[in-house]
Amino acid sequence: MAQPAARSASVDVERRPWVGRSIERVEDAALLTGRGRFIDDLGTPPGTLHAAILRSPHAHADIVSIDAEAARRAPDVAAVLTGEQVKAMTSSLVVGVKAPVECWPIATERVRYVGEPVAVVVATDRARAEDAADLIDVNYQPRAAVIDPLAALAADAPVLHDGFPGNLASDRSFSYGNPEQAFAEAAHRFSIDIRYPRNSCTPIETYGVIASYEAAEDAFDVLANFQGPFSIHTVISRALKVPGNRLRLRTPPDSGGSFGVKQGVFPYIVLIGAASRAAGRPVKWIEDRLEHLTASVSATNRATKLSAAVAADGRVLALDWDQVEDCGAHLRAPEPATLYRMHGNLTGAYDIRHVRVRNRVVVTNKTPTGLNRGFGGPQVYFALERLMQRIAIGLDLDPLEVIRRNLVPAGAFPYRTATGALLDSGNYQEAIAKAVEQGKLAELMARREEARAQGSLYGIGFTAVVEPSVSNMGYITTVLTAAERRKAGPKNGAQATATVALDPVGGVTVHVASVPQGQGHRTVLSQVVADVFGLKPQDVRVNTEIDTAKDAWSIASGNYASRFAAAVAGSAKLAAERIAHRLARVAASQLNVEPVDIVFAGGFVVSKRNPENRVAFSRVAALGHWSPGSLPDDAGQTIRETVFWTPPELTAPDDEDRINSSLCHGFIFDFCGVEVDRTTFETRIDRYVTMHDCGTILHPAMVNGQIRGGFAQALGAALYEEYAYAADGSFLTGTFADYLLPTTTEVPEPQIIHMETPSPFTPLGAKGVGEGNCMSTPVCIANAVADALGLEDVTLPLVPAKLAGLTRGPEPEPPAGRSSAKPAREGDRRLHGEGSASVNAAPDQVWAMLLDVTTLQAVIPGCQRVDKVSDTHFRADVTLGIGPVTGRYRADAQLFDLDPPNAVTLRGKAEGALGFGDAEGRITLAPDGKGGTKLHYSYDAAIGGKVASIGGRLLDGATRVIIGQFFAALAHQAGGAPAGGFSLFALLRRLANLFGGRQ
Amino acid sequence: MKPAAFDYIRAEAVDEVLEGLSKEGGNARVLAGGQSLMAMLNMRLARPKVLIDIMRLTELSRIEDRAGAVTIGAGVRQATLLAWPELTRTLPLLALALPWVGHVQTRSRGTICGSLAHADPSAELPLLLVALGGEVHLRSTRRRRRVSASEFFVGMMATARAEDELIEAVSFPAHNGGRCAFREVARRHGDFAIVACAAVATPTGVRLTVGGVADVPMARDWPCLDGSALDDALNGFAHELDARDDVHATARYRRDLVRIIGRDLIGEVLQ
Amino acid sequence: MTRLAAHSRYPVRLSLNDTPVEAEAEPRMLLSDFLRHRIGATGTHVGCEHGVCGACTVIVDGMLTRSCLTLAAQVDGCEVQTVEGLAPSPDRLGILQQAFRRNHALQCGFCTAGILMSLDHYLRRNPSPREADIRDLLSGHLCRCTGYTPIIKAALEAAAELAATTEEKSDA
Ligand SMILES: Cc1cc2nc3c(=O)[nH]c(=O)nc-3n(C[C@@H](O)[C@H](O)[C@H](O)COP(=O)(O)OP(=O)(O)OC[C@H]3O[C@@H](n4cnc5c(N)ncnc54)[C@H](O)[C@@H]3O)c2cc1C
Ligand code: FES
Ligand code: FES
Description:
The complex is a heterotrimer of chains A (999), B (271) and C (172). Chain A has 999 residues and is α+β, with helices and mostly antiparallel strands. Among the domains of chain A are: 4-36 and 495-540 and 559-645, Aldehyde Oxidoreductase, domain 4; 830-994, Alpha-D-Glucose-1,6-Bisphosphate, Chain A, domain 4, CATH 3.30.530. In chain A, strands 3-5-1-12-9-10-11 form a seven-stranded mixed β-sheet. Chain B is built from eleven helices and 14 strands. Chain B is globular and about 60 Å long. Chain B starts with 6 loop residues before the first strand and ends with a helix. Chain C folds into two domains: 10-85, Beta-grasp domain (Ubiquitin-like (UB roll)); 95-171, Orthogonal Bundle (DNA polymerase, domain 1). With 172 residues, chain C is α+β, with helices and mostly antiparallel strands. A five-stranded mixed β-sheet of chain C has the order 3-2-6-4-5, with helices on both faces. Chain C is globular. Helix content of chain C is 36%, strand content 16%. Chain C has helices at 31-39, 95-102, 112-125, 131-138, 149-171, and strands spanning 2-4, 10-16, 19-25, 57-60, 63-66, 79-81. The complex binds flavin-adenine dinucleotide and FE2/S2 (inorganic) cluster (2 copies).
């Protein structure tokens, strides 16, 4: 306790507030003892069934047929739903732009990304549901896939949706000020081309949904670890074909992190809701990690060309943005929000009055995108801050000096940016000065000199970033033209809600719709409300679960856009103050003083002038329950108050497309020193300094927690993390062994510096702080690495092999007699190879073996059946394995260009639960002059599906090994050795099974 | 992500394991530490009909230092070997390299022999076995045999073990006091190697063994080379390894590491 | 020899935090699912089911164990320790848990159980670890919220405190 014991007789009316102190979190005791209540920890109604989802192995294919009969007949299976059934029960999810396009939570007729749901199986437990899913036979007709956003715009690119001609979902151009003139007159023009990769903040808890359809009321009751925004509630209820009041959406008490990602659970709410309806029982689905990495959601990848008109002194006069946003295979709500979230902030921390923007949104054969910490910020700042460094280098200026010369002037707040944001408050110059001094930049510069003198690759990077928070629910309408907006009606604001209630013994309960994902909202709210009532945080109980059937909520509710401290905590304060205001009247009449003389302190309601004159808080608080008649007439009820708060500054886009996309704007200035290892090209963060001005700090330790957590994720984005796709759309990073999150051995402690410039627009003066480092850190590290290696262009993630490739000179030639190693893959993902073998039999004998179907069946290990479609066309069912990896495949092979007994071309494919493969090979036979045959083969092959996403590391190697094995076996067999088994199918079936055992 | 169904056999004698393997053949899998196998079962990459758990067989959990070789039973976990007091003296190379195998939490369960049976081309233990010229002790109801490291690893995740054979133990020739060095480059600490190299002094010079590049660990013996002769030898070796690109590294990067690290390690050992 | 048939359920008996427990499981049931859904000990979490994230880490017969890479049938008759057994009493936190709370070494708490088990196991055997040791130990765990450094700080603080209390005990 803050007050000294001597004062305890009277009440310390000046007590230090709880807000601003790092008190222990109320959440922690349960979490530390294993008593958290996450979605998979909660009981389910008796008879709840479990769902497993069969997903597409193809990036783009037509579904020719689905045979689910065997699955439906499997023991303990209650229902199997394919796209057809789901479509019959639901309607399409709303698409974020005006276009004749549908968006289903499950593939209907066509799959458009690897991992897209194809069928849902509902059974008594998850293992049995997966058993049955294995029995579903889907026949796909593959189509060409496109994964690159610029390639998707090419005239001959495969088209994903007829309603998006040329894969273009939206194309808008904007002009603010007079960019043409600025570019024409500027002394210099600098440009940069950026490819921002795909990544995701991947929480450690995956998605979970428990849905129950209540037929009697035609209503759904859903528990999901959804995080908001609750504008999505309308999307879900529409898709489930019930009015909003018949979709009761609840959240569990605890959620294992989200970072935006759990917004993406919503299509599964629709899917599992439909499954429950079909099965007539509650259905539970817990996403597994492979599903999550492959198909949950990701941040957008973006191709950006950014140009700046620059004066001789380094002042940026105008910017020209050309952004091509890749939203994956479907434009799911609220996309294309990632692109427009930063629209008001396209000039960053800088005073740049002229801006031209072209924003295009494209679809590609990748997982649909959605909310992710930073949400558009990383993509924008990577371009802007890389360009600032380029300008400095181009003009031979100090990069920090270029940043300084362009900052929004200190006295200019609130400052309206060219694109419409209203920067609420700040002093960027002072923040930088503080960071430079406290972060000891001079020392770091000296360190760089020293390191370089010793031959090290050492670099320094800088970034200045404005961190927007509390999104304007209307910013997304900037994607529409002013005329379209007028037709659609206004959308703007950001309703926050908070309820404060007093119980009959004076206990205080707070409820908010902020859906925390681990950020400690309950603790902060207890501090905020305790301060208002003069109580201790322990006296205030906070509930943050949402139940849309009972609680106050609105479309902006939820946990995103760093809105908690700025909007939600402020609303709770307002609600508490309203009640306190009324309680003050009640107490004033009891204490015979004026209401203005009343303060709340130390558990009492007290006269300021005479602290001895007081009454216990609980007495005053309980009165409204026990004796409402004795409240003064003008006091009003004192039991429960709900506040709805929306800031007036969040207006709709104006007719010139200026949009105040966010309410608050924190400031971040980062710099860092990195060393790149000369041998391995690994990047080591030597020192990282991050300065934050996030307005008033409510709980310093939690603010630092947000900064550290964001920093670690950003470090991952900078150095390790990428959702990698092959050119054919195969997904390559489906496990945590390939999608690499940083661990304890990679993450250093950043030096955190604070400055507090309160926001004039929020009740507590707080601004958001949760996302900033995800915006500033990736580019800060990239700038440092570019500085260390003297590189003009760097792409994330900064994979050592990539940096080495950019930096190292030509490779030493192989010694004489060895041909230099050719890349096995050329552009596409097909693997090419060739080889030869000697066979102890004459060419015509070998030829006969190649064509003899009856012997094939006998010699192929694990061959269940061979069907001869024609003399040169075979089908077979085979089970095969490499090491412990086994699967069942359906193979289809044809022979072409037969030139007996000299040459044949073999073309075929195989498909099974573990993936698919196709191959083409040419085999030539020539007599070796000793009665035997010299066999030469060349092939190309490609593998996709589950094997590619799980075993990418070993894929190529395995392909070669298997093809080698096939010909070895052939030679063996022909030589009359004990039956080892060979066949055309051996090639195919093994091809389909290529991968290694990486976990 | 739950395994397909299988029968589970908890063996209480080695003979039971051998009989099980001989009866079930390719349908059975030995379950040792489970650190590779269980993940494959969970992902349904592997679907054996029978699992034979060998971890309750005390006769397989011995480490013996006899006749110039250290013999490690199939039940010996990686952590147990790492904590064995004689390790640094008898097998200094393993003392250097074992901490690179996964993490504390996987070494505590994973076995030495399990890693050899699994034969991942990037795994450290197969590399160490090749570097030191060890032997794998195989046993079935039919026979007992020993296979040398260089013959045991035949390809990516492929070994000379027949389906009905149990790896009963592995033996490493003790290189008491012998000079050796180990270095590994992985994306993060605890990941499978992009390149791992071990150098061991031999009576005639040095042996360099490389993992993570070819399908199996590859070793080269050289006399005491230095200067450009060593560079040429390493360059030739690097090109012979037939390196590949994957999501984590390029073939060129792997060859560069073989050249640079190989040179450093040989320098250390021959110094 | 014990042979359990694929689709049948068998009793699994074990000692969970020094209390005997028993429930039925099919051979394929993972220890993580057994603890959580059969016994109701939901403090052990599941984040990947392929051994990488560490959320499911428990102690089996003194060994750190990924419960997602372990079958319930394998631990029949074993001693299992989980996060539920760490606190000295239901209303008090242990020294390590307190250090976590003090240092804000958790946010969502999803990864925490596994990390606590690794640290509890380690600190009992290594009373004076260096920061590098703790970093090495915890590299087998993923946390997406905290950025790790508060966890490392909490671990070092707890180690110091534990060392001090055992010294006191041995002095007494
Ligand atoms: C997060 C993580 C990181 C890892 N990192 C690495 C790493 O960096 N380097 C590395 O090398 N490994 C790594 N591994 C894998 C390693 O830990 C495994 O321990 C090892 O590969 C297998 O040993 P095991 O005892 O667990 O075998 P299991 O998983 O039980 O078995 C593996 C295979 O070998 C067979 N088998 C096992 N024992 C025998 C026997 N005695 N006779 C016949 N067949 C047998 C099994 O049937 C199975 O096919 C990692 C694992 C995880 C989960
Ligand atoms: S759930 Fe077991 S390690 Fe991730
Ligand atoms: S606290 Fe959320 S993952 Fe670690």
